[in-house]
Design goal:
Neuraminidase, 36 strands, 41% strand
């Protein structure tokens, strides 16, 4: 009898030793990640969410560690902590309410160029010591490497999981001025520094605000509109009323703006409000029905029903009327060799953001219908490509962005002829889709930027004109992006790849879309772009955007 009791006691002690921390074999540890508190004079919500995203990825371990869903954690944090300070006592309360084994919380403080990280990972049951990180550095480039090391320490010290994660020294980059708050003068929008590409860089003959490989000649100038308290998501140019003069059309979340540049004054033609549930994804302008007036094609996603409800506007009798609506089409206008502007469309699926083939659309039976399918490789969506003689050998090739914003030249069959070794494009415009790794959380597919293939300087050689938004560390995150500066670049084929012809001076802000056309109706084409200085992601910060243009001193033939 006594022996049986002794055996039972030893058995209990053995179980406690094996399952210390309250987790039975096969039952994963539960971790609650509380979003970091951001102490900064700017909107860093993208980084706040991105840190949670990164830590979730780094700490998740199949059948061993599960990170509690972000929405569930945030709901409990709101109930227990509210807007109050976060400390170990409050964190333990939150962990207990979530039935978590561990709670991770911290803060990031930005003061000028000084950045400090202070974070803790604590055992709710008090069985293991707290893992901490405190780091002070200069500039944002150190944030991601330090968070990475913190996650590695947690894996090793708490879960006994050793990963080969090395801390990389941040790349040396030229110091940049703080992000400006007010753009009172166009020159404040332009970066002061000029980055060199293999030697002394001079200005392009097209415009003195373009940095080029080559000599300098007289050129045009730069123009900027007033600021709009909107996040401009897309823009296009065309003659909407058939009077021979170009208008610019741009969109925000659910508003359409039509303006005209008259002697360098930006004059409103019309502003049109959509419905509260509208999410305007893109806008294109072209005369597809052939009546001499360019239609406005708006790709619109109804956020309540998660379906496309795209529509088309046209100018009639002094106002805009809807000539087509409720369409399951993503619209995009590209310029094809020997054809000019062509309207393309692709449908949306029930679970996939893009469904099936890409079609050329035409005006048929009072609506825009598919004329024929385009010979485009699978995996390339309607927003991500254009077609032209990129190689300057008389062949029409497909120039497309891949899902990671690398440019690639493809044959019609999908064979890749070339791929860039650096990023181009870059957008915060996205579609939600089912996530393969996190079924409870939707993934994001960031949409590609426009690509133009044109012979701007009329030297007989085609140029690729494309945006290059600089993301810093935000490209590491799957769900969040933030761009601090941008350029528009011209590339052309040099026999080995697409090499740089020229680029604009650095633009402080994110270029959300651009166009090439006679923006000011002076008979010469301009390079026109929508620049977002503030996205307005928080209730405190308002969105702020502007339209800019560069004259192109195109040689007359």
């Amino acid at each position: 009898m006594i022996l049986r009791k002794v055996i039972r006691i030893f058995f209990i002690i053995f179980l406690l030793a094996v399952f210390q921390g309250g987790a039975w074999a096969g039952e994963p540890s539960r971790v609650a990640i509380i979003p970091f508190k951001m102490n900064a004079d700017r909107d860093l919500s993208f980084l706040r969410e991105g840190i949670v995203d990164m830590l979730t990825t780094r700490l998740s371990w199949e059948n061993k560690v599960v990170v509690i869903e972000r929405e569930v954690t945030e709901r409990i944090v709101g109930k227990i902590a509210g807007a109050g300070p976060m400390n170990e006592k409050v964190a333990r309360e939150i962990g207990t309410a979530l039935h978590a084994d561990y709670v991770l919380f911290g803060s990031l403080t930005v003061f000028g160029e000084s950045v400090s990280i202070d974070a803790k990972m604590m055992d709710v049951h008090g069985a293991k010591p707290v893992v901490t990180i405190f780091n002070q550095s200069r500039g944002m480039d150190n944030v991601i490497p330090k968070i990475n090391v913190f996650a590695s320490d947690i894996n090793e010290k708490v879960f006994g999981r050793v990963l080969t994660i090395r801390e990389e020294a941040p790349r040396q980059v030229a110091s940049r001025a703080p992000f400006p708050d007010i753009y009172a003068h166009p020159e404040k929008l332009l970066g002061e520094g000029i980055q060199e590409y293999g030697g002394m860089m001079e200005t392009s003959s097209l415009n003195p605000n373009f940095i080029a490989v080559g000599g300098r000649r007289d050129a045009g100038s730069f123009w900027k509109s007033r600021n709009f308290e909107e996040h401009i998501k897309g823009m296009s140019i065309g003659d909407i009323d058939g009077d021979g003069h170009q208008e610019v059309v741009f969109i925000s979340q659910n508003q359409i703006f039509v303006y005209r540049n008259v002697e360098r004054r930006f004059i409103k033609v019309k502003e049109i409000s959509g419905e509260p549930n509208d999410n305007f994804i893109g806008v294109d302008v072209a005369d597809i029905n052939g009546n001499g007036k360019a239609e406005i094609f708006v790709t619109n996603l109804n956020t309540l029903r998660d379906v496309l409800q795209s529509f088309v506007l046209e100018w009639e009798a002094g106002d805009f009327v809807t000539i087509s609506k409720g369409n399951n089409w993503y619209y995009r206008v590209i310029e094809l060799p020997m054809q000019g502007p062509v309207l393309l469309g692709q449908k949306r699926g029930l679970s996939d953001p893009f469904l099936g083939d890409i079609y050329e659309l035409g005006w048929r039976n009072g609506n825009y219908e598919g004329i024929h399918t385009m010979d485009i490789p699978r995996g390339v969506n309607v927003f991500a490509f254009t077609i032209g003689d990129v190689l300057d050998d008389g062949q029409e090739m497909i120039l497309a962005f891949d899902e990671n914003d690398y440019l690639q030249i493809l044959t019609r069959s999908g064979a890749r002829e070339w791929k860039s070794d650096e990023y181009y494009g870059g957008s915060v415009n996205y579609l939600e889709m089912a996530s393969e790794n996190e079924p409870s959380e939707k993934g994001r597919l960031f949409l590609a930027q426009r690509i133009f293939i044109k012979d701007l300087d009329r030297d007989g050689k085609k140029e690729v004109i494309v945006i290059k938004n600089h993301a810093g560390t935000s490209r590491l995150f799957k769900r969040y992006r933030q761009f601090s500066s941008s350029e528009i670049v011209s590339l052309s084929w040099n026999g080995l790849g697409l090499g740089l012809n020229w680029k604009t001076r650095k633009i402080h802000g994110y270029v959300s879309d651009f166009a090439i056309g006679d923006f000011d109706n002076d008979g010469q084409e301009e390079l026109v772009a929508a620049v977002v200085m503030e996205q307005g992601a928080s209730f405190v910060a308002k969105a702020k955007s502007t339209i800019i243009s560069y004259d192109l001193a195109i040689p007359k033939t």
